[in-house]
Amino acid sequence: MRWLGRLLFLALVWADVRASEGAEVFLGVTRSEVFRIPLGILYVVTPPDQAKYSSEIRTVLEGDLRRSQVFRVIHPPLVPELAGGETPSAELIKKAGRQDLQAAVWISFAQKGEELMLEGRVYDGKTGQMVMGKRYMGQAQHLRTVIHRFSDDIVFQYTGERGVAETRVVFSSSLTGSKELYLMDYDGYNVRKITGDRSLNLSPKWSPDGNWITYTSYRGGTPAIYTLDMATGRLSKTVGLPGLNISPAWSPSGGELAFASSRDGPTQIYRVDREGKALRRLTLDQSDNLSPTWSPTGAEIAFTSNRGGSPQIYMMNAAGTNVRRLTFSGDYNTSPSWSPKGVSIAYTCRVDGRLRICAISPDGATLARLTDGPGEDESPAWSPDGKHLIFSSTRLSRGDLFMMNADGTEMERLTFSGAKNNSPAWSP
């Protein structure tokens, strides 16, 4: 209980600090209107006895493409001539494209026993020419995964970058009474438990290659950092120093791990190699320092510290030198998360007595509050493309996970279990 009490104190990062009067005003969110390609799904062709899949395929694909922020999904009028399942002609595509449709999707789906086949084609709405065509085979139970892959392939065709529809999210949940780790698809589907420690499991983080999940656990009685091999299910203790060992964070190269430990008194930031060896202390003051997050280049680390009297975000070189304070608005700023492209650091801030999600540029020049409304918002984490944030909020429940665009728009709820879900981390 002594360890638990201190861990909760640090994990919440001085949650009982009172908001000061006359707090600085946060800048509003600037929402730029970015052009999105008008896209429509013309037809999903299925055998008569499998027509039930048509709606699911359309719904999942439209959701993926909308969230990509590349396409503006519209609903063009149906072209009855496409319903027969024949490969559409350029003239038929151009007929549909006259409705301001720049990209048109045609899908053929069939299932035989436990196997499925999905053929997806993308056409230029103006010329009627096919710009992409792929066939996917798989098990029927993996239909959503197949659609996610098709969506990511479409995004890659138009942008040269992979989408995030095939990514996953790991998070901590009290669904079974203890705090276990769970995995789900990026859109909240296919939730499954991946730990069974009957203990307190916190702060999961993915390795850059997606092969491992590292987290803090009390499974051995004291808080240590463990690593779960996602391919084999093998669990190993990575850091077991005396005292608290919390808030792990992988370096972009995957060769090192930063974390906080109280082995020498107040929690300090340390580094170890991927085997948990070559220990090196980075922060040297007598305050509490925790929640490290690496810059995409690996050259810098942002972290939380109360060295100035209240929890704030600080930055330092990865060697522990050149420590400087980043946040100055408000008296409570914690849990930094560096964006994959390096242009922004999201964090938990307190505004008017409530926890919100804020973002600041690494030079401190640009500051924005991204969330508002009822409840408390905390623990932001970036999608691998840097276009989305996932976070925990009590706005509608004890604690559920929400996803939003990086500018705070298009928020949607992902979990509905009724349990307290927090500490999300997005896979590569």
Quick structural gist:
The protein is mainly beta. The protein has helices at 2-11, 52-67, 90-97, 143-159, and strands spanning 37-45, 71-73, 103-112, 115-124, 130-139, 168-173, 180-185, 192-193, 201-206, 212-217, 224-229, 235-239, 245-250, 256-261, 268-273, 280-281, 289-294, 300-305, 312-317, 324-325, 333-338, 345-351, 354-360, 367-369, 377-382, 388-393, 400-405, 412-413, 421-426.
Folded structure, characterized:
The longest helix has 17 residues, at 143-159. The protein has helices at 2-11, 52-67, 90-97, 143-159, and strands at 37-45, 71-73, 103-112, 115-124, 130-139, 168-173, 180-185, 192-193, 201-206, 212-217, 224-229, 235-239, 245-250, 256-261, 268-273, 280-281, 289-294, 300-305, 312-317, 324-325, 333-338, 345-351, 354-360, 367-369, 377-382, 388-393, 400-405, 412-413, 421-426. A hairpin with a 5-residue loop joins strand 17 (289-294) and strand 18. Helices cover 12% and strands 39% of the residues. The protein is built from 4 helices and 29 strands. The chain is mainly beta. The protein is elongated and about 75 Å long. It has 2 domains: 21-159, TolB, N-terminal domain (Rossmann fold), CATH 3.40.50.10070; 168-426, TolB, C-terminal domain (Neuraminidase), CATH 2.120.10.30. It starts with a helix and ends with a strand. Helix 2 (52-67) packs parallel to helix 4 (143-159).
